[in-house]
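Run log, item B.
One chain of 285 residues. Sequence copied directly from the ordering sheet:
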Amino acid sequence: MSDPIGALRGVLVSTADNCAVNCRFCFRADVGRDVLSLDTYARALSRLREIGIDELCLSGGEPTDHPEFGRLVRVALQFGFRASVVTAARSGPRLDALAEVAGMLSHVTVSADSRKAGELGRTGRTISSAPKVFESLGHHRASLHVTAYDLDDDDLTEIAAVVEAAEVPVEVSPLLPSPTFRFENPNLARDLELISTSFGMSDQLRTVVSDYHAWLHGSVKRSCESVRLYLSADGYLRRCPYDKSGQVSVTATRQVIREALDRSFCTPPTTGLACMAICRQDNEG
């Protein structure tokens, strides 16, 4: 019998439920006012190290908005974690906070949106504003992630220019409807073809798209397959960001936490595509 805890590779950390960026198509599992405290975070990392987890990814909300962002990174390293970040930072205090700890991070994923995706989601995470983020890092342990909707030649030119200048890999993902953000995308087939021919499609992305088509015709009958735990900003660990039924507080005893997490995977997701995309992204590591 396999050891479910032994299969875990990392933890996705929600630094805050609120977010000033507030993208309309955000896949945040929790929306509210909770902000991760250092005490809660340190206790969680202590328990996670005890069960063999040594990788974490700081997300949010926007992680660089956390008032103790630098300390979150430093505490992670003190506990022996490899720390990565997913960020939409572009300038000002956010970029300053990121640059301050950039050398300590194992990886930085810079989020951006195609022009029409940005208009649809009201995001402001333009592709053309990404180069200065990579410049501030001082290393190439980074990548560009573009959410694409109705791609055009200008988008493709901008992506290619950023990737060449920053010398980083890129992943382009189609913006797909979810239960929380429904919209029409008459050009989805064209977007997928452009992504495939211009940038390639990972097995992960192909699976998400396949699941999306299955979701259109009814519920997707499978369980989550994430190998990364989720730590909520209010201090709960759970297998799936969207399934709170099996969550456990980091203030619980070691035994209670292990018993709560020592299960194969969460029940079949009820949130459809959003859950699939997040969990599959976690699997990519």
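Observations after the first pass:
- The first strand starts at residue 10 and ends at 14.
- The radius of gyration is 18 Å.
Flagged for discussion on Thursday.
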